[in-house]
Write a structure and sequence with these properties.
By secondary structure, the protein is an alpha/beta fold. It has helices at about 5-25, 30-35, 40-45, 50-60, 65-70, 85-90, 105-115, 125-140, 155-165, 185-195, 215-225, 240-250, 265-275, 280-290, 305-315, 325, 335-345, and strands at about 75-80, 100-105, 115-120, 145-150, 170-175, 200, 225-230, 250-255, 275-280, 350, 355-360. The protein folds into 2 domains: about 5-290, Rossmann fold, CATH 3.40.50.450; about 305-360, Winged helix-like DNA-binding domain superfamily/Winged helix DNA-binding domain (Arc Repressor Mutant, subunit A, Orthogonal Bundle). α1 runs parallel beside α3 and α8 packs parallel to α9 (about 155-165). The two termini are about 40 Å apart.
């Protein structure tokens, strides 16, 4: 699999123009209009009178050398002229010219065949958000649905981790080169995704991410996902930019509801108020993708759960979160302590920062 000369040149141009685009746009502009420009107009728009510097660099562009450089970095390339290239990324004024891939390139074709889901959200989420994203990634992957995200801290990484735990297929879309883990603290996750899934980017090998390249990669995530699910995020978060791209593309949009007093829930709650699908579990997502009833309706507790543990779990679900509250509901103190330990080991409850017990997703 390899991209054609012309598409490789366009991808290389984005890498060359990275800092120029950042200076020309500032920090808060969205990119469709700029990415829609052809090569000549793009150089003129972001470089102005200093375009001669870029013209000289482009004049020496060698597609063969670019392919060798990509291979050395462990990356394959693809472009809209390849049969396996995702159709939605081929179209529109800001279509993707080239992709660099780490992992099995055949996985790119799977994204076209299957209903993939993009799971996005806050970089500094709550424990609830992390658990929910992990559960969504795990359950969707277990159902055979590819999970797409951006490998960022927080919700993105949790969704990838969940998919990997289930032995499923997950795709990380990066804002810099696909060979450069970002953030660096996720280098291990980057290796694991590449080993069993796919890491991809429209930026060439070694490219560092710029502020503009994050919303640019968000449009790719929204395009790859038949549905985008926002787990947590403020009203100005990047996850809502992804949601906006999904809506522009006519893709399905879902959001996980949160506490109305939480700023992290403001983004998804606002999307729900505007008509986004309420996502309580992977079952809701599967219902949207495959029709009502496609998602399993199940109680997440083991069928053989001891009745006394079930009663304790019911009390926690009703809001009795502290051991004292549980003891006041006709449970013996020793029974509460032993039962909570058992429920924790089963992964059915967790303790929050205040020491109270909460039901896990």
């Amino acid at each position: 699999m390899t991209a054609c000369d012309r598409c490789l040149r366009r991808g290389a141009l984005l890498g060359i123009l990275g800092p120029w685009i950042a200076r020309a746009l500032g920090e808060h502009r969205r990119l469709p209009a700029v990415l829609a420009l052809d090569d000549e107009a793009l150089v003129a728009a972001v470089c102005g009178r200093r375009r001669g510097l870029i013209d000289a660099e482009l004049a020496g562009f060698d597609p063969g050398e670019e392919r060798r450089r990509s291979a050395t970095a462990g990356l394959a390339t693809s472009c809209p002229h390849a049969e396996s290239f995702p159709p939605v990324l081929r179209h529109g004024p800001d279509a993707v010219a080239a992709l660099w891939l780490r992992g099995d390139p055949a996985g790119l074709a799977a994204l076209s065949r299957e209903h993939s889901v993009a799971v996005v959200g806050a970089r500094r989420p709550s424990a609830y958000g992390l658990e929910t994203a992990n559960a969504l990634g795990r359950e969707l992957a277990a159902a055979g649905v590819p999970v797409v995200s951006g490998m960022a801290l927080g919700i993105d990484s949790a969704a990838h981790e969940g998919a990997l735990e289930a032995g499923g297929f997950t795709v990380a879309v990066l804002a810099g080169g696909a060979d450069v883990p970002y953030p660096r603290s996720r280098a291990g996750l980057h290796r694991r995704i590449a080993a069993s899934g796919l890491v991809l980017s429209e930026m060439p090998p070694g490219a560092r991410p710029f502020r503009w390249s994050f919303p640019a990669r968000n449009r790719i995530m929204a395009g790859l996902g038949a549905m985008t699910v926002v787990v947590e995020g403020t009203v100005n978060s990047g996850s809502l930019i992804t949601a906006g791209f999904a809506q522009d593309l006519g893709r399905d949009l879902g959001a996980v509801p949160g506490q109305i007093t939480s700023v992290l829930a403001a983004g998804p709650n606002g999307l729900i108020a505007e008509g986004a699908q309420v996502v309580r579990s992977a079952a809701d997502v599967l219902d949207v993708l495959y029709g009502p009833g496609a998602g399993p309706r199940r109680d997440a507790r083991p069928p053989s759960l001891d009745p006394r543990l079930g009663a304790l779990l019911d009390a926690i679900e009703r809001g009795a979160g502290s051991p004292d509250q549980l003891a006041s509901e006709s449970f013996e103190t020793a029974e509460v302590v032993a039962g909570l330990t058992e429920l924790e080991l089963l992964g059915l409850v967790r303790r929050d920062a205040g020491g109270n017990y909460l039901r896990c997703p």
